Amino acid sequence: MSAPRLEIRLDRIHHNAATLVTRLARRGVSVTGVTKATLGSPEVAREMVAAGVAALGDSRIENIEAMRRAGVPGPMTLLRSPMLSQVDRVVAAADVSCNSEFDVLSRLSAAASEQRRPHGVVLMVELGDLREGLLPEDLEAAARYVLALPGIGLHGIGTNLACQSGVVPDARNMAELSALASSLESALGTKLAVVSGGNSANLDWVFGSEDLGRIDDLRLGESILLGCEPLRRRPIDGLHTDAFTLVAEVIESKPKPSKARGSIEQTAFGRQVATVDRGEMHRVIVAIGRADVDPDGIVAPAGTTILGGSSDHLVLDAGPRPPGVGAELSFQLDYRALLRAMTSPYVTREFSGATAPATR
Ligand SMILES: *Cc1c(COP(=O)(O)O)cnc(C)c1O
Q: How far apart are the first and last CA of the chain?
């Protein structure tokens, strides 16, 4: 098998998605399964659909198009505001998109009318995290604008927290979203199909709250894929945290000094490191680097310690049982490391444990 590779356990992703779907269904909340960290992998998407997600969400139209081409069933939502230059593709491939700009809404309307393909709009509201979203006082005007345009319909409203500024979803900002949903419905005399409360960072709030108000949907990526919540990156009870493993190959394995020799300036990536003399250690070089993964986001095998990484080399203190040249080492990944590994052309993917039927 080739290295480096990502080993992807589809049965574990299925289990995580199904568990969250069930737990949230008890609270009246549906799940939009978010595929963007896997580049819209049809294999992963099919497991999410088979596990009962109500829709799939991705921030890139390219990923949604890839899932469509692979025959992945079900509704798909573009999570990032459409680029004006992509509105035609958005209408053609996605059923719904998240929006916060009047100009985009008007162009979506034109594209949807021309293609005779109805398109749903989720208006995103800014509730403190300062990434995307209309200011709350502009929401009603935007909703009226959508209702007046041909070809597009008002699917719902949503918000996104804990991304740009780390703002925690809590009773106050979630109640604000609920109140906006209710006042919008009474002002416009329409019913919103979806009030989307946020992402994996909302799970603590959901499971720790009596009353979820109007929130009836969450868009979940990290919690399904990695089994952890993103506020403090704690594992979620009953979920697998090891659906993804990065496997890489040892290309050098030798006892060497622990302290660097010579006068010291910046490393290849602009850091200043001070090595400490701890005598001789067994060092191994693994054939992965920043071109494959974010070395700050991986966990080394037990007994070994990551000493540093450059573009193509990862250096480890091999500990008491050093692996030889040609041996494979396995690493766990966090979200940023997973995203990098998935987007690297050097890292192959090895899927196993598929439970969902192939679609094409
Ligand atoms: C990425 C993204 C999500 C999913 O976030 P996770 O923390 O992976 O659950 C949800 N909503 C939007 C708008 C996103 O961009």
A: 25
The Cα 283–Cα 275 span in angstroms is 14
Ligand 1 midpoint to CA 60 (Å): 12
Q: Can you tell me the distance from the alpha carbon of 145 to that of 35, in angstroms, rounded to the nearest whole number?
A: 30
d(CA 321, CA 243): 26
Q: State which amino acid sits at residue 137.
A: E
Q: Please choose from 30, 59, 226, 244 the residue to mutate so as to test ligand 1's pocket, defined by most ligand atoms within 8 A of CB.
A: 59
Strands 5-9 and 30-34: unpaired
Could you tell me if residue 296 is left (phi over 0), alpha (psi between -120 and 50 degrees) or otherwise beta? Answer: alpha
All domains of the chain in start order, with CATH: 10-226 (3.20.20.10), 244-351 (2.40.37.10)
Percent of the chain clearing pLDDT 90 (strictly above): 95
How do residues 48-105 score in pLDDT, each as one tens digit? 999 999 999 999 999 999 999 999 999 999 999 999 999 999 999 999 999 999 999 9
Is 191 a catalytic site residue? Answer: no
Distance (angstroms) between ligand 1 centre and the Cα of 264 equals: 41
Among the listed residues 114, 121, 198, the one whose alpha carbon sits nearest the alpha carbon of residue 162: 198
- Under the banding of pLDDT at 50, 70 and 90, the label for residue 274 is confident
pLDDT at 273: 84
- Which ligand 1 atom lies nearest to the CA of residue 225? 8
- As a whole number, mean pLDDT of residues 111-132 equals 98
